[in-house]
Amino acid sequence: MFKAMKSHISQQLKQINDAGLYKAERIITSPQNAAITVKSGKKVLNFCANNYLGLSDNPEVLKAAKESYEKWGYGLSSVRFICGT
Q: Can you name one GO molecular function term for this protein (predicted)?
């Protein structure tokens, strides 16, 4: 049964690849930001992360985050919908 399943999956992957629909992971070689560098050395816009505005390394945002950690701590004990409010 495994051989049949493996053959079926291989055929499906070949069809997907032949149709140009196979998605290969891009290797990111720079820090995550609005603009990133991929393995080929090409710089591209990073629309696949929640940092598309480039705020994750913004000095003002980092300063505010550090101040909030000092005041409120860091991390979640749990999420509210599991433990209640």
A: glycine C-acetyltransferase activity
